[in-house]
Automatic annotation (TrEMBL):
Its EC number is 2.10.1.1. It comes from the Bacteria. Pathway: Cofactor biosynthesis; molybdopterin biosynthesis. It comes from Occultella gossypii. InterPro entries: MoaB/Mog-like_dom_sf (IPR036425), MoaB/Mog_dom (IPR001453), MoeA-like (IPR038987), MoeA_C_domain_IV (IPR005111), MoeA_C_domain_IV_sf (IPR036688), MoeA_linker/N (IPR005110), MoeA_linker/N_sf (IPR036135). Belongs to the MoeA family. The lineage of its organism: Bacteria, Bacillati, Actinomycetota, Actinomycetes, Micrococcales. This is Molybdopterin molybdenumtransferase. Keywords: Magnesium, Metal-binding, Molybdenum, Molybdenum cofactor biosynthesis, Transferase. Residues 184-322 form the MoaB/Mog domain. It catalyses: adenylyl-molybdopterin + molybdate = Mo-molybdopterin + AMP + H(+).
């Protein structure tokens, strides 16, 4: 049995992204659009502000009535209306009169400035004003911010709180977004038990389905955690058929290597739409990717927990972000300086879980987070990892002081 040629990490990442397209856009209420990627440009439907309005609680006045007013020359005028924010009244403010006005209320016709209440005696039938307002004082003009038709948000924006506020202010109750991918998570392995239950001899807790479900959430998807299933081919095939109509993607762990009971490979490798093969990567060597006959995307990851974490960050997260509409979902790496040295297997691109020390303004410093390095079974050490240091396939040893590329994890 010879070793098949290994695909590089970059080739596999390209193959994954090339096979995926953003999910078709749909209109959703803006209250549900947070975190999604906008599918179309959004323009303002109205001017912002919508109408000239007061920036202060005070009095809408005709400035000409108050030329020369001051503490030593107070001017007393009748109050002809009371205008709270939200009023539909539009009283005419004639010469020698004022209207009491609150912040956000529309400026009444005839008035051309606002005097803050602090510069008055706060009267309600007549008011004594002891300041001369500047021209157009404390008026917020219609369209100061945006004119109708102005661009508010660009297609491709991942919507955050401030984007939603701008869209709402511009008159939009719904937005066209790429939906969040729904992603089923299934762990395969007869040895797996639910965490917290006592494992019998030979059994271990299923950690992968929890890692993957939470990773899907953190990547902006909606996880459907099925949990652990035994290595039974017909049961596994039935489960896939049952789950796939309800989801956009399925992330599997385990059963993709060359073992005698590798159920994922046994059931899926015969499909022409699935690719299986070794990657020149450590950890994460055996992988599968493709889709089921109904189009559901499948990521088949190796079972070792660190391999699952690394494979998610390098392939699955970018893939899910592509489904979610991100134009360039490839991971962003930063430079880090190795605090200690470690070994890397020749011919495989290594992803070493590392602690990242951001330092005080200096370069990021990194060191392996697990006592025993990048072993793919070291699930305990994952908890201390802030990111993954990438070591090129042709490098067999990282020395203290070397610069490595680091993929920062979700914190
Ligand atoms: N003869 C060979 N054996 C192996 C090779 C190889 O090239 N030749 N590759 C090794 C590498 S590298 C990896 S990675 C694993 C991948 O194997 P599988 O994807 O088939 O995974 P399993 O055998 O099902 O499990 C591997 C390991 O991970 C544990 N595991 C599985 N699922 C979970 C889970 N949900 N939670 C926690 N731990 C899990 C499982 O018990 C095994 O210890 O193959 C190597 N072997
Ligand atoms: O590829 Mo395996 O994930 O190295 O342990």
């Amino acid at each position: 049995m010879g070793s098949p040629v290994k695909r590089s990490v970059a080739e596999h990442q390209r193959a994954v992204l090339a096979a995926l397209e953003p999910l078709p856009a749909r209109d959703v209420p803006i209250g549900s659009a947070g975190g999604a990627v906008l599918a179309t440009d959004v323009h303002s439907r109205t001017p912002i502000p919508l109408f000239d309005n007061s920036a202060m609680d005070g009095y809408a006045v005709r400035r000409a009535d108050l030329i020369g007013a001051g503490p030593d020359h107070p001017v007393t005028l009748p109050v002809i209306a009371d205008l709270p924010a939200g009023t539909s009244a539009r009283p005419q403010v004639g010469p020698g009169t004022v209207a009491r006005i609150m912040t956000g209320a529309p400026m009444p016709p005839g008035a051309d400035a606002v005097v803050p209440v602090e510069d008055t005696d706060a009267g309600t039938t007549t008011v004594t004003i002891s300041a001369e307002p500047a021209e157009a004082a404390h008026i917020r003009r219609a369209g100061d911010d945006l004119a109708p038709g102005d661009l508010v948000l660009r297609a491709g924006t991942r919507l955050t709180a401030r984007h939603l506020a701008a869209a709402a202010g511009a008159g939009h109750g719904t937005l066209a977004v790429h939906p969040k991918p729904r992603v089923a998570v299934i762990s395969t392995g007869t040895e797996l038990v639910d965490p917290g239950t006592a494992p019998a001899w030979g059994q271990i807790p299923d950690s992968n389905s929890y890692l993957l479900a939470q990773s899907v959430t953190e990547a902006g998807g909606t996880p459907v955690r099925i949990g652990a299933v035994p290595d039974d081919e017909s049961e596994f095939a039935r489960l896939l058929a049952e789950v796939s109509p309800d989801v956009d993607a399925i992330v599997l762990s385990g059963g993709v290597s060359v073992g005698a009971f590798d159920v994922v490979k046994a059931v899926l490798a015969p499909l022409p739409s699935m690719w299986f093969g070794p990657l020149a990567m450590q950890p994460g060597k055996p992988q599968g990717f493709g889709h089921l006959a109904d189009g559901t995307v499948v990521f088949a990851l190796p079972g070792n927990p660190v391999s699952v974490y690394v494979s998610f960050e390098v392939f699955v997260r970018p893939g899910l972000r592509r489904l979610a509409g991100d134009a360039d979902p490839r991971p962003v790496l930063v430079d880090g300086v190795a605090e200690v040295g470690w070994r890397s297997p020749p011919g495989r691109e290594q992803y070493m879980p590392v602690v990242m020390d951001d330092g005080a303004g200096g370069p990021v410093r990194v060191r392996p987070s697990a006592r025993r390095g990048s072993g793919s079974h070291l699930v305990g050490g994952l908890a201390g990892a802030d990111g993954l240091a990438r070591v090129a396939a042709d490098v067999s040893e990282v020395r203290a002081g070397d610069t490595v590329a680091v993929l920062r994890g979700v914190s």
